[in-house]
Amino acid sequence: MRKREPISKIMSDNVITLNSNDDLTTAEELFKTHQIRHIPIVQGQKVIGMLSHTDLMRVSYAETVEEFETEVDVVLNSVFTIEQVMTKNVVTIEKTNTIREVAEILAAREFHALPVVEEGELIGIVTTTDLIQFLLKQY
User: Fold this and answer.
1) Which neighbouring-strand residues pair with 47?
2) Within-domain flag for 1
3) Position 93 in a domain
4) Which residues form the CBS domain (predicted)?
5) Cα dist. 42→23, 24, 27, 123 in Å?
6) Which CATH number characterizes residue 26's domain?
7) pLDDT confidence of 2, banded at 50, 70, 90?
8) What residues make up the domain containing 47?
């Protein structure tokens, strides 16, 4: 197994982002369109939060009331903002952190994704799926 491999080797650098002024319908569309589960919320290139699909589902009624989905989206957006739903005080990692260090953070903190930054600016994201795919390649 390769040791001391930087996380930049397995991170995704084509990151879908939102800002706190975007609405939750836009977030839901991005989750579906790109088949992703986590979206960093940015101000410029600085990470100010993280929105997960699970966060959205916690406040959404769309899964239980499919026939009224359009009306639910309107209600959802009039009641909640991204800033209210997102996780704040996000843990970020540097692109030079090792894969092992990131695995330890993900395991200890029970996160499923971490934004990767360089000099405070978002440059990527790493997920538990990225980590599992890396480990599978080792066997």
Assistant:
1) 42
2) no
3) yes
4) 11-67, 86-139
5) 14, 15, 13, 11
6) 3.10.580.10
7) low
8) 7-137
Q: Rounded to whole angstroms, how far apart are CA atoms 128 and 112? A: 5
Element holding 98 (H helix, E strand) = none
Looking up tokens 């996000």 gives 90
Is residue 2, in this structure, part of any structural domain at all?
Answer: no
Task: Find all residues with CB under 8 Å of 121, minimum gap 6, and list them.
Answer: 44, 45, 46
Identify the pLDDT of residue 74.
53
- In a domain, residue 121? The reply is yes
Query: Which two structure tokens, joined as six digits, stand for 85?
Result: 């739903």
CA distance 121 to 85: 22
Q: pLDDT by residue (tens digit) across 60-112?
A: 754 444 544 554 455 556 678 999 999 999 999 999 999 999 999 999 998 89
What are the percentages of helix, strand and coil residues in the chain, rounded to 5? 45, 25, 35
- Nearest-angstrom CA–CA distance, 114 and 128: 9
